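Structure tokens please, single chain.
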Amino acid sequence: MRGKRIVTLAALVALVATASAATYVVERGDTLWRIAQAHGTTVAELVQLNGISNPNLILVGQELKLPQGLVDDGDAEPETDGGPASDGSPQAATYRVQRGDTLYRIARQHGTTVAHLVRINSIPNPNLIRVGQVLKLTDGASASAPTSPAPPSGSSSNARIEALLTSTARAHGLDPALVKAVAWQESRWRPNAVSPAGARGVMQVMPSTGRWISSTLAGRSLDLDDPADNILAGVLYLAYLDRLTGGNEARTLASYFQGPNAVARNGISSSGQRYVSSVQTLKARFT
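Here you go.
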């Protein structure tokens, strides 16, 4: 009919999809890694969706498209059953993979390691997991034990890292037990740890965050591959978050995990709560 537009079903679907597409405006201190974590997606997906040529360079005020149909990983609680299985052996805790998950992220949330998940789930390719896939978090023999490994006891390298964590925490007014717990949760105190997203060292600091800490908090360039500088970067950032949250430990820890902007905007997610709980459990062991 003349004067009227005929809208096809395909066009209508496209229109609705465009209208409902989620976006995020980059704020000061953001990194692609933290934005991806806060919104249940991956750096690679954000890079592809937004045509980003340099993942380490995003601008304050830049509007990023977020993948449609994201499922907040915080809603995916681990399925656990501490009771005996039919054969009398303990039941393993499990987790169902959600959109945007990676093995690294799942391991970090549940206080374990990628290598452990790969081993107990017989995963041939650690970079390939499927939405809906059920992963064991523990083997049956240790299901009743905490998923966070016990703190170390006695090696010379661990003693040096612990001494650095303690002295740096005290120098900046933080509880050494808290700093040691965060470092253990993040890297198991491994100076050479590098996450799939590029976070480095004992405190798992992203290079872009390290540059911000260097210029804004440290007043000098910090080498994230140097254990002392890496620990200093993490402690300065924790101290900054402690001030930002008014000394609220849970929000400080969640901000370290989710990013302060995400916590301020959306509160502590379920995955953030698990992270906080794991760190606080570890803190009690170091006290």
